[in-house]
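Q: Could you predict the 3D structure of Chalcone-flavonone isomerase family protein?
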Amino acid sequence: AFWKSVGIYTDAEGKAIEKFLEVFKDQNFPPGASILFTQSPKGSLTISFSRDASVPEAANAVIENKLLSEAVLESIVGKHG
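A: Sure. Here are the predicted structure tokens for Chalcone-flavonone isomerase family protein:
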């Protein structure tokens, strides 16, 4: 709703949000599982899952949308870190 209110929401953001939700759709995370988010300098968001406390070798998804990538990072660490 915020992106729409400030005029920065496009079809690309809509598709990125759909992909983000799809990545988590059928997932269940047992105790000790981790979700790893990696943000590239160009704005892609890589999402990886670990169910055994290891660092995954392959990503579950990569979403090419800088606005979504920055929003996810900000939701985790806050606007001022």
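Q: Anything worth pointing out?
A: Residues 2-77 form a domain with the Chalcone isomerase fold (CATH 3.50.70.10).
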